[in-house]
């Protein structure tokens, strides 16, 4: 099971849009995907039509240890795509978590249970003992909660919710708007990744910087993209997500881009990203 | 002295762009303006060419009670526009503040000193006693630190830094991107304003919702703007800030829009906003 965090403390750069549509693209090509909304704004949950005002439990309860991930998971229109929704109360979680023991590791602990079930699915079926009666060869449905990908959407900050996401995952995608402020915050973010790797999660690695809201008509966008590639080289995804109004319209219909506008540039770009994420595969 | 907070927990909606350019517009029409950068990303500081890596003290020291605002103020190219810069260390401030007594009121306390000096400037000169020798009638230069406006730029969250800003100010401007997620977070933000008014700052009022990044070419922008005006009526500024690439380019030159592109739509819109803010004047 691959675990990805989508993070950037700079606001409005395309984190939620990326988590939703990358998740949907991976689900469409056959992966089982769990999206976790770790942002109190609950944009990801609303983007996928979760009625956040009437759900009983959310990621907030998971972080307080009062529910498991299996308790709060919500299905979407795609059987391969599930969501752990957020809730408005989550905005109080950072202060509540601040005094808990191992406060940065709560989400990781909650994901252990999910991981175990996914491993059970990944493990090759144990060859039956010679002569044992075996049932027909129809493949077992995956155990509930078995996933190929878990993707966590982070709030625009480097507080305890984001650190929980970085401790619970192994790979990081950093959406970067191709505008001036994009480069400014990178050094701080990379410092935090290094610190988390040293103190909390040695397996954490940067999967890539993802250029988002790229508008090829403006010099600014072109210049920032060129600067990103010059600075970070291979660590920038080949795929750049172009500005496309369909991506901004899709959330108001409660749909990801493949259900809302499957022939749009946005759908094309996120499918290309999914293929690139699969190709960059987990370094085991 | 009018004290304004520019806030919205949704990221990337134009908070910093508004604080900088509204401040500059007010300064250009003769008001003395102090901008306070309360965001650890320090985008406002960099936008106005403050070298955040080499300043000794910042708003971080003010919040810890180790410096006054007068100690950290930085001048800009415009004599009417000063900045209290941010610093990358500010991102640790929320956890540090969490256990301090009166943690939400630290910024308000720091501004008291500034306010006193501004009052001294506002007070009509005391009429000299009859027969007293008076000096020539040249107007006194304002005492250092005397301002007509203080504008605080907030991070994209409703944590302790933002609550400090809401406790230290009397008027709130909420930049709202004319996109779907804009409406989703409003109810939470208005709840927080009510709570701060009830518990910490009875004078706090909403000055207005400011449509930002408005792109008249897309239906989405038009629809969201129409919905904002339908929902919030008078509380939406008449001025809408149009999407204008010059506004996105200005920060990479370390200038506000009036120094970078004085004839642009961006300059026009922020000047119109300044006039509207002056017209909406403080309800005394
Ligand atoms: N490629 C794109 N083309 C057009 N609009 C986009 C694109 N990506 C994102 N958007 C829009 O831009 C806005 C910001 O995107 P999004 O909410 O995904 O960013 P975010 O980083 O998750 O924001 P926050 O920091 O508040 O969590 C949204 O209104 C979204 O619909
Ligand atoms: N009217 C506009 N036209 C074009 N670009 C704009 C406009 N307003 C803001 N921008 C650009 O959009 C991006 C987001 O704006 P800004 O940084 O001011 O938002 P913010 O709300 O302060 O973000 P954060 O939540 O990260 O603090 C920046 O790259 C900025 O240059
Ligand atoms: Mg988001
Ligand atoms: Mg900002």
Task: Describe this protein's structure.
- The structure is a homodimer of 284-residue chains.
- Chain A contains 13 helices and 7 strands.
- Chain A has a 7-stranded mixed sheet, with helices on both faces.
- In chain A, 41% of the residues lie in helices and 13% in strands.
- By secondary structure, chain A is an alpha/beta fold.
- Chain A has helices at 15-28, 43-47, 59-63, 69-72, 93-98, 106-122, 160-168, 181-184, 186-199, 219-232, 245-249, 257-260, 265-279, and strands at 2-6, 33-37, 74-75, 81-84, 149-153, 171-177, 205-212.
- At the A-B interface, helix 5 and helix 11 of A face helix 5 and helix 11 of B.
Short description:
With 284 residues, chain A is of the alpha/beta class. Chain A contains 13 helices and seven strands.
Features:
homodimer; 284 residues; alpha/beta; seven-stranded mixed beta sheet; 41% helix; globular; binds adenosine-5'-triphosphate; binds magnesium ion
* Cofactors, ions, other ligands: adenosine-5'-triphosphate, magnesium ion
Helix content of chain A: 40-55%
- For the residues shown, what is the average pLDDT of chain A? 91
Q: Give the spatial strand order of the biggest sheet of chain A.
A: 3-4-2-5-1-6-7
Low-confidence stretches of chain A: none
Q: N-to-C SSE series of chain A?
A: EHEHHHEEHHEHEHHEHHHH
Largest interface: A-B, 35 and 35 residues
Q: Count helical runs of chain A.
A: 13
Instruction: Specify the structural class of chain A.
Output: alpha/beta
What separation lies between the terminal Cα atoms of chain A?
A: 11 Å
Q: Based on CA inertia axes, which overall geometry of chain A fits?
A: globular
Q: Give the biggest sheet of chain A.
A: 7 strands, mixed
Q: Using the CA coordinates, give the radius of gyration of chain A.
A: 19 Å
Oligomeric state of the chains?
Answer: homodimer
Strand content of chain A: 5-15%
Q: What is the number of strand segments of chain A?
A: 7
């Amino acid at each position: 099971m691959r675990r990805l965090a989508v993070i950037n403390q700079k606001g409005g750069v395309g984190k939620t849009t990326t988590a939703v549509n990358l998740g949907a693209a991976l689900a469409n090509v056959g992966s089982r995907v769990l999206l976790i909304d770790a942002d109190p704004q609950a944009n990801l949950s609303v983007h996928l039509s979760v009625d956040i005002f009437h759900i009983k439990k959310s990621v907030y309860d998971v972080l307080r240890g009062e529910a498991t991930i299996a308790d709060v998971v919500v299905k979407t229109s795609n059987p391969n795509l599930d969501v752990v929704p957020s809730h408005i109360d989550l905005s109080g979680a950072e202060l509540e978590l601040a005094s808990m023991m191992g406060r940065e590791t709560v989400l990781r602990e909650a994901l252990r249970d999910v991981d175990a079930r996914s491993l059970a699915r990944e493990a090759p079926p144990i060859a039956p003992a010679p002569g044992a009666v075996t049932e027909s060869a129809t493949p077992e449905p995956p155990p509930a909660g078995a996933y190929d990908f878990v993707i966590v959407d982070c709030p625009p900050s480097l507080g305890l919710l984001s650190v929980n996401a970085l401790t619970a995952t192994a790979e990081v995608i950093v959406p970067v708007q191709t505008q001036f402020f994009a480069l400014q915050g990178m050094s701080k973010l990379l410092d935090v990744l290094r610190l988390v790797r040293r103190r909390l999660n040695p397996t954490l690695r940067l999967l890539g910087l993802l250029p988002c809201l790229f508008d090829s008509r403006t010099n600014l966008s072109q210049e920032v993209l060129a600067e990103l590639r010059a600075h970070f080289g291979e660590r920038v995804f080949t795929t750049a997500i172009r500005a496309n109004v369909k991506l901004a319209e899709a959330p108001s219909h409660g749909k990801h881009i493949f259900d809302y506008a499957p022939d749009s540039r946005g759908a094309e770009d996120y499918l290309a990203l999914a293929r690139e994420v699969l190709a960059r595969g987990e370094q085991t």
